[in-house]
């Protein structure tokens, strides 16, 4: 198993995530979802979380987002241990983006971003002062979609919507940003726009940590620093991308021959037939 490098483990801004011997079981049928997970994330690291369907990616992301608790083991997020902290307060410091997030379709992009300040679906207008409204505009600009400010989110393209939702997640200035398949159903231009937005975000916010769940290596921005591979609820490999996103590691994780190449900081994965 590949471990994070010494340099990667010595980030000056501290540990963002620490998971030790974590297991998750489904109580209805005692099915094991996660088993023996050990993992740590330092400030400023950008992780890719990959694995086949059913490998446990969504469950692991729920633990990181303080949406659920482990059956066994310990989960510390932003220095707070699940089970010993008010998760409602903790979630305010964690940005979470999923394409399945429900927002009012007639709300403008600016309004959708504003709701990130209160963590609500519907806007709470009395809670937003001029500074919050200005910040929402600045975040739309940062994500490269300031022209969408007055456009209803319901008529935005998939890529535009994804960038607006990331801007929304950044409203409370989180230290950790979780991205759950943000590229789902995007066409090629939209995918590339989102990749570039995430690349710029990593450069402009050096202390922000991100964890991105994806099925395709081609969707990872070149700023991705680390990767964790899950196979049947267990860690198959974890550590710096140069050691994890390899043909050998991906073949091991997915159980079929996979050839990985990298060019200009971007990855390409191709699969042959299993022998």
Secondary structure blueprint with pairings:
Layout: E1 15-26, E2 31-42, E3 46-51, H1 57-64, E4 72-77, E5 80-81, H2 87-91, E6 94-98, H3 109-114, H4 130-142, H5 158-169, E7 176-180, H6 188-204, E8 209-213, E9 226-231, E10 234-240, H7 241-244, H8 247-254, E11 258-263, E12 266-271
Helix pairs in contact: 4-5, 5-6
Describe this structure in words.
The longest helix has 17 residues. The N terminus is likely disordered. It contains eight helices and twelve strands. α4 packs across α5 and α5 packs parallel to α6. It is α/β, with parallel strands linked by helices. The strands form three sheets. A six-stranded mixed β-sheet has the order 6-7-8-3-9-10, sandwiched between helices. Strands 2-1-4-5 form a four-stranded antiparallel β-sheet, covered by helices on one side. The radius of gyration is 19 Å and the shape is globular. It is about 25% helix and about 30% strand.
Give a concise summary:
The chain has 275 residues and is α/β, with parallel strands linked by helices.
């Amino acid at each position: 198993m590949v471990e994070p490098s010494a340099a990667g483990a010595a980030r000056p801004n501290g540990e963002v995530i620490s998971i030790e011997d974590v297991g998750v079981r489904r109580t209805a049928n005692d099915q094991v979802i996660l088993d023996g997970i050990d993992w740590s994330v330092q400030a400023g690291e950008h992780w890719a979380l990959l694995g086949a369907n059913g490998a446990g990616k969504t469950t692991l992301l729920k633990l990181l987002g303080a949406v659920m608790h482990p059956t066994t083991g310990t989960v510390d997020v932003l220095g707070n241990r699940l089970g010993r902290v008010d998760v409602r307060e903790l979630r305010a410091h964690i940005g979470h983006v999923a394409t399945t997030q429900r927002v009012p379709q007639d709300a403008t992009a600016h309004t959708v971003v504003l709701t990130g300040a209160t963590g609500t679906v519907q806007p709470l207008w009395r809670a937003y002062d001029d500074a919050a409204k200005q910040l929402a505009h600045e975040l739309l600009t940062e994500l490269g979609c300031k022209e969408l400010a007055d456009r209803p989110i319901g008529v935005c393209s998939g890529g535009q919507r994804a960038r607006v939702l990331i801007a929304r997640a950044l409203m409370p200035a989180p230290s950790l940003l979780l991205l759950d398949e943000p590229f789902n159903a995007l066409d090629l231009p939209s995918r590339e726009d989102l990749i570039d937005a995430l690349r710029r975000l990593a450069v402009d916010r050096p202390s922000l940590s991100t964890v991105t769940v994806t099925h395709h290596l081609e969707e990872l921005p070149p700023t991705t620093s680390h990767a964790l591979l899950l196979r049947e609820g267990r860690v198959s490999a974890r550590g710096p991308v140069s050691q994890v996103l390899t043909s050998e590691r991906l073949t091991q994780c997915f159980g079929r021959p996979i050839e990985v190449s990298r060019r200009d900081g971007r990855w390409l994965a191709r699969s042959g037939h299993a022998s």
